Amino acid sequence: MTIEHIDVAYTAVATAEGGRDGRVSSYDGNLDVVVNPPKVMGGSGAGTNPEQLFAAGYSACFQGALGVVARKEKADIAGSTVTASVSIGKTEAGGFGLEVAITASIPNVDRATAQSLVEKAHQVCPYSNATRGNIKVELSVV
């Protein structure tokens, strides 16, 4: 597999202290959150967790990619939403892995057009490109 070079437009920098039970902050101070494992994984659930942060980033990025595709296709995506559900669990090899489900609601187009837009956005989205072939990502339209 060849790794493609990008012409870097922006670099985000964040630092974690305490791992999954600590704090994460961005270099510019715009993000500064307590992270804790969810209660179902034995944590306090008092803060956010890495999976929620990943879901937030993926859904926002995918919505942006949907906008790029919609402008090109001249499709009306006003009022659309993208939800990313990120799951974590043990792998067969004994480590941990992630799975993602992307659900899009695009009320101003028919279902077939919405499905096509979502599939094209999946090819454009940087998060989709980063995860492709590494984790299971399911796409759906509601």
What's the SSE blueprint?
Blueprint: E1 14-17, E2 22-26, E3 32-35, H1 50-73, E4 81-90, E5 96-105, H2 111-124, H3 126-131, E6 136-141
Parallel strand pairs: 5-6
Antiparallel strand pairs: 1-2, 2-3, 4-5
Helix pairs in contact: 1-2
Please give a structural write-up.
- The protein has a three-stranded antiparallel β-sheet, with no helix packed on it. Strands 4-5-6 form a three-stranded mixed β-sheet, covered by helices on one side.
- Helix 1 packs across helix 2.
- 31% of the residues lie in helices and 27% in strands.
- It is an alpha+beta fold and 142 residues long.
- The mean pLDDT is 96.
Descriptive labels:
142 residues; alpha+beta; 31% helix
Short structural summary:
The protein has 142 residues and is α+β, with helices and mostly antiparallel strands.
Rg, rounded, reads: 17 Å
Q: Give the end-to-end Cα distance, rounded to a whole number of Å.
A: 34 Å
The average pLDDT is: 96
Q: Provide the succession of SSEs.
A: EEEHEEHHE
Which overall shape is indicated by the principal axes computed on the Cα atoms?
Answer: globular
Unreliable spans: none
